[in-house]
Amino acid sequence: xxxxxxxxLAAGAAAYFLKGLRVDPATAARRAANAVKLSxxxxxxxxxxxxxxxxxxxxxxxxxxxxxxxNLIYETAKALKDSGLADCGYRYVNIDDCWQSSMRDENGELxxxxxxxxxxxxxxAERVNELGLKLGIYSSNGTLTCExxxxxxxxxxxxxxxxxxxxxxxxKYDFCHNVPIxxxxxxxxxxTISRSGSQDEKVYASDLAFLSGxxxxxDDPKLPSGRYIDGLSGNAGxxxxxxxxxxxxxxxILTLCIRKKSxxxxxxxxxxxxxxxxxxxxxxxxxxxxxGRHQVRINLQAGKNTIRIYNPIGSRQDSAAKQYTKMGEExxxxxxxxxxxxxxxxxxxxxxxxxxxxxxxxxWGSHAGNLWRTTPDIKPFWASVLMIYEVNxxxxxxxxxxxxxxxxxxxxxxxxxxxxxxxxxxTLWCMMAAPLILGNDIRKYVRADGTPDSDEPTYRxxxxxxxxxxxQDPLGMQCRRIKSNGVRDIxxxxxxxxxxxxxxxxxxSSPAEMSHSLKDIACRTFVTLPIVDEYEATELWxxxxxxxxxxxxxxxxxxxxxxxxVRAK
Length: 569
Ligand code: GLA
What we know:
Helix content is about 25%, strand content about 30%. The chain is α/β, with parallel strands linked by helices and about 575 residues long. Helix 7 packs across helix 8.
């Protein structure tokens, strides 16, 4: 097993195996490079105008888990402001799992826990907004959240409207209790078309359809027609009915006459005239009849129409991409509609996809939302930070303004990370243009007299504006690892004004002298650092500025980093 892993990672990898995960994240990332091709269209970017630099804020999960209430959230928002961290850029106050009541309200809408959040989320959002901060919330792309509370799969439109109405500006969408879209498609005996409200139906038998890919006619004496269309599953084929006559344009009932088969759900999409897509799920069956009727309302144009029936889901990845995209669309629609109805400026919702990297979200995440988790949950110990870094660092080409790899929320200040490890964790996340979502108790950074406790070691880390500026650089480029021997890595991140950030990362357990040729860095095609004789480099933790000629050099502590902002002199 350890042969698969970079040096020093065996213990961390073992932890993943012990937790029952079949592959360690580093291997998963390598496999992802060869991931199945997506069959759902993810060509255009999500573009809601939010998170043009990686979002910054705080989340309740890493430290407080299920022990949250409205006072804690408000006190944290106030502490972000009073500590000066809000001025460093931490603006989103995100409530993670366990804010919900187990009951939806009488209108089927989510409502907050009636005892721990009695004033409601809208009220909390308003109070947080008065502090100049934004409120975030959480749900799951499943039937329940990870803590088994009501969630949003199948309720996307209604929940998105609720969040927009409450003034939510960040939404994390988890993956617990997910039910994938079936890859199996129904078997079609015939289709019929009827005008809404009429008993007349025009029947188009299966042998009238043009069949493509794996679609085929199967003989079946149990059906009156004697045959049905099979082979529409898994994005492998389609059946197309042309010359569907409609006397006038408007709504019609499409009835799929299906051969009832198999004890699993089935899914089909119906593409009308090459532009309108309708979808339908056909339930699993144990019915006594062989034939069933399954109906969808569709719009037809006057004259001839084309109806194509298929199932675009060829993999679990397709299913996740489609389900996450659906929620993102509903969020955009809901914020636009709320703003229009109320004559207020639109509040876009930063959309954070959290399916733990299972379905290669870097392949479709920039189409579906603003950021996507790339790994399982972070833990407040060094092996976890390292393991997540090893996966996320390879995904650099997927990050861009408004679309970020998310290596999970920060554990700085939690668990037993040493000062050096906390500093490295924070620096690496900034080099990787990661969202900076704090996960510790911010209230301790404010003294009794209401002033920031800037002597707190982790406060000094989290408020380092020079390192934050590397994360927030407007180019929005994630660093690349240009050299590694498994123990010592060299990372380079392009910055605006033809500058670069260079990070020496020493994973080893003893200090190391590290250096690298500046000419080699300047010659790389992904940077615009000029090739000159002398460079000026500022180390962003100790704030020293040095002039380097051929090589940039530093002594790097065990489990430590040095991070330089480098410019041509
Ligand atoms: C999952 C997520 C975590 C957190 C919890 C809440 O594990 O990955 O970040 O949101 O659910 O239950």
